[in-house]
């Protein structure tokens, strides 16, 4: 499999700049390698009390322990089915990642980033994001969209800009009547690594392993978007299996 680039040429997405992650040559400072076919490492649900130390070696140990649990105790990871589009909102960069969930397997469909010029007026940048999101949804045709829940940090100016971009992304999804769900960073980290305070390198590595890729996904925004999509696939299955009405995710 190769990473299908959505809107590889800038003209394919209006006037916005598209910086996709692909097996081809990357800009200076970015690295990638071709993807390969094959079964992904199966993950299982581990009790939260299990201490996890996240280093490069322990990430491998984590996967080994999961496989042992599956083999010895018959634990299986359930996942939802269909195409899920993860979105990491931002004004300068919107990360996107689409995956296909079928039975007990997750596979990468496409990933990349939509970027807008810093010199443009905010209104024009928001219009570009909206138009590109509509075209992206039309091309990917997802059954659901997973987006990160917004939290204001110490830089409220940045938070306001992200909130504006998030608003037009939600509007685009609602315009095309795609069910939308939001997750907190803590929920995503807990779901992907089993540890709510995992650092970005560990998150990117577990996304790589889950989707059976040869290299971590770049840019970081695209990897974050894929983590959101994976989180939703697993959460939907968990809700279906337990038949609970209260969801750990919230609809937008």
What can you see in these coordinates?
It contains six helices and seven strands. The chain has one domain (10-20, 33-38, 78-251): Nucleotidyltransferase, domain 5 (2-Layer Sandwich). The chain has helices spanning 56-73, 122-140, 156-175, 185-193, 200-210, 220-242; strands at residues 17-18, 82-88, 93-102, 105-115, 144-148, 180-183, 250-251. The chain is of the alpha/beta class and 252 residues long. The two termini are 33 Å apart. A hairpin with a 4-residue loop joins β2 and β3. The model is unreliable at 1-19, 23-54, 66-78 and 240-249 (pLDDT under 50). The relative contact order is 0.20. α5 (200-210) packs across α6 (220-242).
Descriptive key words:
disordered N terminus; seven-stranded mixed beta sheet; 7 strands; alpha/beta; Nucleotidyltransferase, domain 5; 6 helices; globular; 40% helix; 252 residues
* CATH structural class: Alpha Beta
Average predicted local confidence, pLDDT? 75
- Measured between the Cα atoms of the first and last residue, the distance is 33 Å
The CATH superfamily label reads Ribonuclease H-like superfamily/Ribonuclease H
Assess the beta-strand content as a share of residues. Answer: 15-25%
User: Per CATH, what is the topology?
Assistant: Nucleotidyltransferase, domain 5
List SSEs in N-to-C order: EHEEEHEHEHHHE
Residue share in helices?
25-40%
- Give the class from helix and strand content and strand pairing: alpha/beta
Uncertain runs are 1-19, 23-54, 66-78, 240-249
Radius of gyration (CA) equals: 18 Å
CATH architecture: 2-Layer Sandwich
Shape verdict: globular
Total tally of structural domains: 1
Main β-sheet, in a few words?
A: 7 strands, mixed
Can you count the helices?
6
Strand numbers in spatial order across the main sheet: 1-4-3-2-5-6-7
Total strands: the figure is 7
